[in-house]
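Issue: copy button drops trailing tokens. Both records pasted manually instead:
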Amino acid sequence: MKNLVKYSVVVLLGAQLVVSCKNFLEVSPKGTMLESNYYRNQSEAYNGLVAVYDVLGWQGNGYVSKIPAANSASDDHYAGGGSSTDINAFQVWSNYTLNAANGPQEELWRKGYSGIFRANVLLSKLDGVPMDAGLKSRYAAEAKALRAFFYFDLVRLFRNIPLLLTAVETSQLYNVEQSTPAAVYAQIEKDLNEAIPALPVTVALATEGGRLSQGAAKAILGKVLLQQEKFAAAAAAFQDVNGTPGTTSQYGYRLLANFADLWNVNNKFNTESIIELSATTTSAGDWGCAACTEGNHMNILVGPRGYKPGANAPDYVSGWSFNPVTKSLFDAIHFDPRNKATIANLDSLKAVGAADYEPGYMNTGYFLEKFAGREKNKTTGAGAKELNFGQNMYEIRLADTYLMEAEALLRAGTPNTRAAALFNAVRARVGLNPLPLNMDNLMNERRLELAGEGHRWFDLVRTGRAPAVLGARGFIAGKHEVLPIPLRELENTKLKQNPNY
């Protein structure tokens, strides 16, 4: 994770090896000589592990990362920004005009295989590192679980991908072929099942916040099984993570009493957090390499453009107006208790003269309150203020796994009192009365609870609802459930493009 330790020479070196590469197939030969004399002791092995974790919070070239990109593709947000070509990767996924050369796929592919490359290197070196056997086992487990996580994102984003478990020899660079999705999923499950027993049950948050525990790996496994419609197995994995609804689980997870506390930038690694993407205000990131900063891009991306507050207005930073909230989501959440902590209603502020802003592209007047940067949270250190916000992001949190277990039980055809209790515990946390558990109510609950956190597009695709919900945006069934294989990856290789692209 990004704030696990300060960057060392090896982490910077690893970042240069991966970020500078145009094609994942080029990574191995570029890194071979540079890695050959490393991993001599436990300290260097730890640095290598940090390099793997660092990819979790990947914010790539052109400000493309998974959460704002996936938000743009959902019915809850538009791409937004300053114009119809501003961060074009968001625009073309939002209106489903993406193709092999244009879209977020190159950056998301690079992220996944960068993480896999780093994990593979560490796993190949660990046996030869003189260090405590128990610690070595833990490092290997973390690397395997992280590799599984990266493969899970890749297979659900692209479906047809290469499965690489070792470095690719130079002579084989252009002979790599795609594996079947079934083979990729089998390897993901194998990695996770091997990793879980060697991971700690819990981690010391003060010193190890952001490292994987057994609970985090089981949460990933539950998502992997749910994606494959292995509903009973998914429910069992999630039950281990969730424990008794409304209480503290064996891994220390518990829903926060106050939903709004989830978005307090100082409330890091709280009891609801299962996998958290770390950010810091102290990396001194600047415009020379926006992708190199350890700050959170999301805070500047989603803030209202040209914001001018009045005396008693919120202290939003003037941002770039990406991911404006659609009228559809606003109408759905407007009278829900989570509305105030989720959506910033700039049109209302403007209407009463409390603040002003400049409407961006596809402006609706509604912005993501969860992630809108605040003046009080700007860095006081070196670097560009816009690139050094310190708000962490959730990759998986407990309300998410509660609802996924309820979904698994429901879709398995075995809804029971536990499934209803999980579903209604999420509602009870914000003071809402129980509702009957069915797929419509469950999907609506996920939409309102997890708005803006990058889950909605994946939920619609996973449940087969995307064509109906996103058809008006240009979504074509049988095509847009996955991204195209990046054009650069197809040049002079054996990789084949996904259907209909």
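Record 2 (pasted manually too):
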Amino acid sequence: MALVRPIRPPAPPTLALHTQAMDNLRFIRDTMETAGSFTAVPGVGGIAMGLSALPAAWVAGRQTSLAGWVTVWVAEAFFALALGFFFARAKARASALSARPARKFALALVPPVFAAALLTAVLLRAGLPQAIPGTWMLLYGTGVVAGGAFSVRLVPLMGLCFLLFGAVTLFLPGAWGNAALAASFGGLHILFGLIIARRYGG
């Protein structure tokens, strides 16, 4: 007796409607966070950070002691980072986006900044203050490149520019360190902040 075979293959088991909906929502959310991750780096915040570095460089250059010079720049670092986080949070709220990209960027940036603080003390103790500006730029650039993995290409590019500035500054005379800090933490932040603000919003 001949076997009867179905013309169409049996349909695969279908997922429950609510399971499909949850999977779709999860995919959309992750995709939007990935596509909108650049918003974790606000252009206006970068400009503000750069503008704050210029008067700091002016004040630091008029200090009569190494301790005074370091104090001015350390205070500027804390102030600039606070500005950056404030504008990043404000932009995330205005865009109604998740804070996850900003959190990832911060987590990538904090370890190099902590390392810079420790190395500053080590270099001062070793009598190598001329190496401090280049070290700051190299470690900050490292953090920006790492955090830029969760952002658009402009952000890791800015980090690479800091790395380049830092490498060059290490081989410059110590008297050029203050100007190099103004050009990097001031100029680079303003330049990339303007580009990011223009292309991707505040």
